[in-house]
Prior knowledge:
The structure holds 2 protein chains of 2 kinds. By secondary structure, chain A is an all-alpha fold.
Amino acid sequence: MKGYRKYFFNKLGWFAITFLAAFLLNFILPRMMPGDPVAAIVARLAQGMSNATGVQKIYQQYSELFGTNKPMLTQFFIYVKNVVHGDFGFSFSQYPRTVASVIGASFFWTLGLQLPAIIVGWLIGNLLGAVAAYIKGGYDKVLLPASIFISSLPAFGMAVILLVVFAVELKWFPTSGGYGFDLIPNWSWPFIWSVFVHYQMPFWSIVLIIIGGQAIGMRSMCIYELNADYVKYSRFLGIPDSKIVRYVFRNAMLPQVTGLALAIGTIMGGALVAEIIFSYPGLGTTLLNGILGQDYPLISASTLVITLMVLISTLTIEILYGFIDPRIKAAQSETE
Amino acid sequence: MKNSLRQLLHSGKFVVGFSIFAFIVLTVILFPMFIKDPPLSIIAQGTFFPPGIYVSVYDSLSSPAYTLKLQGASESRIASKLSEDDRGAIKDYLVATGIPESDIDTTNTEKLLEQWVNNYDPKKIIKGMTNAKRNYYVRLNNSLKGILATEGAIIATKDPSTGTLQEAGTVDQSAYVNVTQVPNVRLLLLGTDNFGRDVLNELVSATRTSLIIGLVAGLIATTIGLILGLFAGYMGGVADDIIMFFTNIFTVIPSFVLLILISFSIGQDKRGAVTIAVVIGFTSWVWTARAVRSQVFSLRNRDHVNLSKLSGHPLSRIIFRDILPYIASYVFMALILQISAAVLTEAGLSILGLGPRTTEVPTLGLMMNWAMIYQAQILGKWWAYLPVIVIIALISFSLNLMNTGMDQIYNPSLRE
């Protein structure tokens, strides 16, 4: 454990720097919006109001609330203070709910959907890719174009196709939502069953997309490894194939783990759009509602939470990678 | 160059991918030369007309009529008005009024209708029947009137002075018009969308816009990535450290989050197709930069580069003659992937409601967005969304296939 300290501190340092950069961008980008955001909000609120002093009052109140009348640096510190307290203000489109409560309600749906889907998709995809590389021939010839085609489909496209086939035509699964619209969330069996049934389609549409991409990558890596000198040498030595395959799989898997760390942002972005197709009550749908309702605090908080999720996933994968790649341990013990 | 082109043409994957892509591009260029309707003009009053050939009813009345004695014409006419479900419903009604089930034969249209006419009474109240069902039977009864008639229909015109109807002609049941002789016929190969626009026309225009977005975004991303990668890789040292610092940061910060924030900040009015393309390009250069840097890194101490340096060649010459040719295929492959990714990104953004503004040009993402908003997928209007998904998948598939094909040529270890 001790040998890993430098590796972990390095990764943690990068995490902190990246988060800081993301946080700054999250603050600055919307404020670079041409025009006064408060004026736009007030104009929407005050539609049909003829009382000029009333409009002026509303404008002042909102400027106070968001601190837009203060200099940028002060605004930033107010923002930091609020975020640290988990206070993102009120949601415009779902007033009087606070942004924190809206995000809190949708966060676990997204986490519960995407985390298992990404893990399952990654495992199945890598297994299929390895099998394709090992068997080659006809199986490989069918599987590769199929994988390329599936991974070419956008996540929302896969979601729509699954929705039409299994929900609209076959009526096996419900078309939208995270649970039956006639149920109130609780820990009863009907509710859990309803959640389970609603879970299937978004889950499998994400899994299928990931499988395609991972299988292609794993196949390439495995072919590369199978042609490596150590495999030929092992064959000369008469080491059984099953044992060689284990080495090959392990070596080919390492770049796939790094690949997942780098691709996780893109994967989650696609999955968020897939959520929208099923009106799944997660962050994707919340984001859509925010955009449709011009709900600026909600969008800003959603993107911050999504960024944080991506950063934490990346960090987790990188830490896991430190444990499974023996080279990192070796490099650490050399320096000490 | 010649050799690698020949190799490319021998790669099945590349050829297939290139053919699909070339077909799409050619269609997009040639189609508007023949069909000049503006893609966003609203032609249909109503939403989601199914695909088919639309023949003007008014014009076909004045077109020359031909008499064709075709077998099964009256059967198919009746079948179109009396579906299997309707027959079942009639049977249910008759059973409910007390006719034994064995007496009813739903395949014998004549007898079934006779029983229906004798037994149907709109005022009769049947126990347990909902109001909706009762109204359905009233509608069914109205549509069945005259279904077995054998005489034709009379066309009448209104006398403008007296307002009385005058017989202008009759349409026989065995009268046919030749579609080529009807002046107004419109082929809607993919029907119309929720706004009443020709989907095919819209789709071609949308594909063109999306490809342009992909190309512009891909070129911007590749150019930025190439310049930064060359600079970092060739210079090394502090320049490399600084560039890699930012590259590492933007690799981990999800680019779609940046896209959402920027697109939202730009505002609906200022978001044109090109603006979106530029934004996508500026948020997706990191991959190319990383790849180019590592390639240049391994190139810069090769003998031919060192020789060039010793000969006192200027930097531009070293870069253009000694480095770029070695990474050209690699950069081109990266460009292909960038184009494909940008088309997908635009579609994702548009579904989120952050696509280009909607008044001028359709994009594939916007078409998808409209179809989803009007619930085409739930209503079973497949022509509004399926062609869009297929085109997006085909663009992406063909480009990925080209990329894989090239990969196998330039990375010999991946060959089968």
